[in-house]
Amino acid sequence: MRNNTLIALSLALCASQSFASTVLREYWEYDAYIEQHPEQKQLISDMSLRIYQPPVPIQTQQDKPIDIDIVYPGSQLSDYWWRNIKALELRLNELDIDYRLRKYSSRPSLDYRQESESLQTVLQDPPDYLLFTLDTSRQKKFAETILNSSDTKLILINITTPIKQWHENQPLMYVGFDHVHGTQLLAKEYLKRFPEKADFGVMYFSPGYISEARGDSFVQYVKHHGDYSLKRAYFTDANRESAYKATLSMLEKEPNIEFIYACSTDVAFGVADALAKLDRQDIVVNGWGGGSEIQAVQNGDLDFTVVRMTDDTGIAMAEAIKLDLQGSPVPQVFSGDFKILSKSDSSEEVDVLRNKAFRYSNF
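and the corresponding structure tokens:
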């Protein structure tokens, strides 16, 4: 882990509430954006129905295949990205869309050079559609380059909060699972398990949008609902090993922590590894969304997780491309569904949840 990330966040220990509201000020919150843009409600509602309905093939004749590029953080324990890509491809096939898909993957927060090379390749041979994530300032600048100087249609993945300063020059769609909504579901589960008060720690993703939207919003939420004291918080390198080391450090300094809020799949598993190493199963830890976490909850390695209906967004991207090719309006934002899964849920409930979440990518 880089030295500058294995540090306690003094800012989070004091004024996290004001910090969260400040860092997210440049984004529209999902619900607030829809409220300010009421025409989006019907488009989102239609998409929510469409992704669970049988595919309707494209009604427009294509002269040639469309080119689709996706640049994504693929070297993660989380199955979010590969499942999204698989669901996207399968749905595009069902929609009879003629396409070519190029994939570029890297490790989040580490492979800056590899990501930059992939993005330069995209610029040299611009696709019709670029599927990309937005977590760092570097990624934001690249997205602005695409929006301002290219005919490429941009779909931003894993973000559902439009950037205010882009005004009307927005991507084709922001799509994912709203981080703040998922965070609130996890926060409510912690409040049920620790009524009124608790001492806790936060294990962040790498510095950036995801840490802000998932981490700071969590701290803000629980502090508004009781005597919940954040004792220590760490940034990680967004991987299992760095979270493991940070958790060992956290518990050396704050051994009486009652739960650790983890901001991602890889981070959650790193925390769980450290708790197992220290034989601290008394400390509660959550997961954040993926198929591997479903199994970890069943195995007792994690206490609970929020499960994303992962294939929702891959299918939604395919449907958005079809709508755009047909000249039909596309929702500006779209968030898939979540559900909390805990150790107490039956195997039958888990099977139903898994079949819904991975209805395309498991086949």
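(Above: one complete record from the training split.) The two ends are 36 Å apart (CA to CA).
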